[in-house]
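Thread: "does anyone have the structure for this chain?"

Original post by V.I.:
We have the sequence but no experimental structure in hand. Need at least a predicted one for the grant figures.
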Amino acid sequence: MNNDEFRRCGHAVIDWLADYYERIEEYPVQSLAGPGDLRRRLPARAPEEGEPFDAILADMERLILPGITHWQSPSFFAYFPANNSPPSVLGELFAAGLGVQGMLWATSPACTELETRILDWLVEALALPEQFRSAGSGGGVIQDSASSATLCALLAARERATGGAGNHRGGDGTLVAYTSDQAHSSIEKDCRIAGIGSDNLRKIPVDTQFRLRPEELERSIRTDREAGRVPFFVCGCVGTTSTLAVDPLPDIARICREQALWLHVDAAMAGTAALCPEFRGMHAGIESADSYTFNPHKWLLTNFDCNAFYVADRQALINALGILPEYLKTRAGDDDGVIDYRDWQVPLGRRFRALKLWFVLRSYGLEALRAMVRRHVDLAREFAQWVQDSDDFELAVPPHLNLVCFRHRAGDAFNEQLLHEVNRSGDIYISHTRLDGAYTLRLCAGQAHTEYRHVENAWRVLREAAERLVNNNQ
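Reply from O.Q.:
Generated one for you, tokens below.
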């Protein structure tokens, strides 16, 4: 493909994507493809000769779209938002086109310095503690996901607790980590990867609002110390996976200070809401956190992958992850003012993720992003009021931010069937969880173009499907 062809095809791709965004409501939100549908339509072997780009683009429509669940649809209410935007796509295009490998400052200074500056912007925009700014002893870095950020925090905490011995000897089975039983499953996976092990992760019980109970955390720590174990790490949640519950961070922070434990705060989706001053109360207590993470790729119009990870003491992170073979040594690396982000993450290589975040922040500005957050919160509150006023549905827990957890009063089997029916319709897509053992439906309003009419339609689809099921079961 020469440059002229590249220009023509590039225009065609942008036109295709622009058309896709315009017609996205025409598609069933959840893919209706069955297992193996695409695989059976693809050749068994790679082509020996190249094919024209037009044929490849045509197959995007013919082969790929039927197998796509449309996360950018305004009627996508499942799991969590993964909202996107044209500026983010263009920033990603620049990153791909430049092909930067940003493992060291020297391998592309702009890649590192833009990232540092953008993450400092977000400290101010979210009113995060000053210790997370790069001008002090801490700083931020873009990871691929909150799962990776938590792993890095866990490794830094492990090395601090063992005086650096963990990297040399491995785990001795005495280290113990703690989190809520409502926290994301990635925390357990990270414990496995870090050599802590699932058996050494304590999942602390929660209260009636699904928030970690500090007294249970203290009791568990005390029991472990009496058994000769070494408590070292606590993960508090600002927005749990199932309900967006906010753990009582001030109490958790006090316990961590008294017990000399690393406090990591996971605000994967909810953190974006702190752009709005009225929602910053959920961050009370993070001034004592050793690390903090949230995902711009969820609710900040920035396409996956883009996670913002902050540490109060970057040296603790570098001590855990830094390793310097001869072939990575540079004169710039000897300068105290230079950051080599390879020491802040698990892999060596790094993409130029900061570009798309820069494009988003500059294109929209903070005020437009705040307006988006407020709109989504208002839509969720409206939906929650409809549920509360209904004779057939009930709220499972008071809604927080843009998430509503609810259920039909007819019981678990009925709710599971209802979920299947509405998702199979293609009109909307929602997901579920279990709260206190009960099958619970979740509606999360967070896609970039979701409006009142989409939420209103979701409520209509749910009520009509429930009515049909009731009639069929009689």
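V.I.: this helps a lot. Residues 423 and 429 are 5 Å apart (CA to CA).
O.Q.: and The longest helix spans residues 354-389.
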